[in-house]
Design brief:
- The complex is a heterodimer of chains A (about 230) and B (about 220).
- Chain A is mostly helical and about 230 residues long.
- Chain A folds into two domains: about 80 residues; about 160 residues, Orthogonal Bundle (MetI-like fold).
- Chain A is built from nine helices and no strands.
- Chain A is flat.
- Chain B is mostly helical.
- In chain B, about 80% of the residues lie in helices and about 0% in strands.
- The N and C termini of chain B lie far apart (about 60 Å).
- The chains are: A mainly alpha (about 230), B mainly alpha (about 220).
Chain lengths: ~230, ~220
């Protein structure tokens, strides 16, 4: 074992691997943005039962939830250029990070749409009726009464999904993305020492998870404090 | 290069033939995870000295490490200890770690959802801890846990797909092998997606039936 694992190398590789952290973080940030926007759209389509779009959304969400993300990643990686070629865009030389962000954005949007939908429909109808009875419009009711309450119920599942997304980014290397894990493999090819790199990467992911968890729990507490103050 | 439906069908059939391997990769870790996860959850719920803290740290740490890293680290350790180890054992070990982590959280959540008054009520009429668990807590916690456990099983099926990276011939690998001669990888991935989709929809349907049965059970309690 000792000849394969050298703790000094973990420390030596750490800065090199850490230098690829922005790639991982960029995926998380952009995929989250895309996921939330698209997810809200899908949730609205499903709540208002817009014909045709509603059925398509159902199939889309079911597919995204029913297939492994690595399969989706490769379908986007191989399929998107074919699809774009039909409308005259050449995507063959695009950076792999774009395919990763597209996949994770789409995947997250399916999960987000379910969270947003159940959070919005979960708000008691009495709340809406109360708002209408004091003369609020549809939009005012949504913005002032429904959305704040829905946000609070959605927060825990939202955090779980973002942390899941962070872990899923680790699969990007399979299509050639040089992120934290891609860097470990690059070092491994050069030096034949890959286990040390994986341990360093694991440490990075553990620290990232702790930070993200902290951020989410602080946000949740603040949100709760703010809302209960309003209610009183 | 458009889609070749004839080839997709060939790859789909190859994927279907490999369903047993994927089920093995999901079910064995599911069973191991359920047993180990329940033990860990119990230790944490009853706050067993030292062990509870140890398990909490271990679960929180392992939860933060992506499965792919767990897999590769285990791969190096296991191939170093046993030469020519069958990759399926490495895959099952990695997925068992993953399964134990997620299932222990499920079981813990189910037990925590039962009001502590229920324990006190059990103790107040002279039941022992085991009796309280068996007659009062477990019957109430089970219907809460079952839907989440089914989700965990689906999570394991999906997670098992990355085992193609260590050359385990599961659904994904089975479909991909057919493309190795003609490079129609997009078609092969679509085929694999279809097989996974159908498999997971089936598990979801079974879970719904089970839930309904549990619902009936729940009504009797209430």
């Amino acid at each position: 074992m000792s000849k394969y694992f050298d703790i000094k190398l973990v420390i030596e590789y750490f800065p090199q691997i850490l230098s690829k952290l922005p790639v991982t973080l960029a995926i998380v940030v952009f995929a989250t943005l895309a996921g939330v926007i698209l997810g809200t759209l899908i949730a609205l389509i499903r709540i208002n039962k817009i014909p045709l779009l509603h059925q398509s959304a159902l199939v889309f969400v079911s597919f995204m939830r029913g297939t492994p993300i690595i399969v989706q990643l490769f379908i986007v990686f191989f399929g998107l250029p074919v699809l774009l070629k039909k409308v005259g865009i050449n995507a063959n030389n695009w950076n792999t990070i774009i395919f990763v962000i597209v996949t994770y954005g789409l995947n997250l949007s399916a999960f987000m749409s379910e969270i947003i939908r159940s959070a919005i429909t979960g708000v008691d109808t009495g709340q809406k009726e109360a708002a209408y009875s004091v003369g609020m419009t549809n939009w005012q009711t949504f913005q002032r009464i429904v959305a704040p309450q829905a946000l609070l119920t959605a927060m825990p599942s939202f955090s779980v999904n973002i942390i899941g997304l962070l872990q899923n980014t680790s699969l990007g290397f399979t299509i050639g993305l040089v992120d934290v894990i891609g860097k470990v493999r690059a070092i491994g090819i050069r030096t034949y020492h890959v286990l040390e790199g994986y341990v360093a990467a694991a440490i990075i992911f553990i620290v990232l998870s702790i930070i993200l968890n902290k951020i989410f729990s602080i946000t949740e507490n603040r949100l709760q404090a703010k809302l209960t103050k309003v209610n009183r | 290069m458009g889609l070749n439906f004839e080839f997709i069908w060939v790859a789909t059939k190859a994927g279907i033939a490999c369903i047993p391997t994927t089920l093995l990769l999901a079910l064995v870790p599911f069973i191991i995870g359920t047993i180990a996860g329940t033990v860990i959850a119990m230790v944490r719920i009853f706050r067993v000295k030292f062990l509870a803290q140890l398990f909490k740290t271990a679960i929180d740490t392992l939860k933060a490490i992506p499965l792919i890293l767990v897999l590769y680290i285990l791969f190096f350790i296991m191939t170093d200890i046993v030469k020519n180890i069958n990759m399926i054992f490495v895959a099952i070990t990695a997925l068992s770690v993953f399964g134990t982590v997620i299932i222990s959280e499920t079981v813990r959540g189910a037990f925590m959802s039962i009001d502590s008054n229920q324990y006190e009520a059990g103790y107040s009429i002279g039941l022992t801890t085991i009796q309280t668990l068996k007659r009062i807590i477990i019957p109430q916690a089970t219907p809460v846990a079952v839907p989440v456990l089914c989700n965990n099983l689906i999570g394991l099926v999906k997670a098992s797909s990355i085992m193609y990276l260590i050359a385990v011939k599961d659904i994904l690998n089975g479909s991909l092998i057919t493309a190795s001669s003609n490079y129609r990888y997009l078609d092969a991935y679509i085929a694999a997606a279809i097989v996974y989709w159908i498999l997971i929809l089936t598990i979801e349907q079974l879970s719904r039936i089970l839930e309904k049965k549990m619902g009936r059970f729940r009504k009797i309690i209430a």
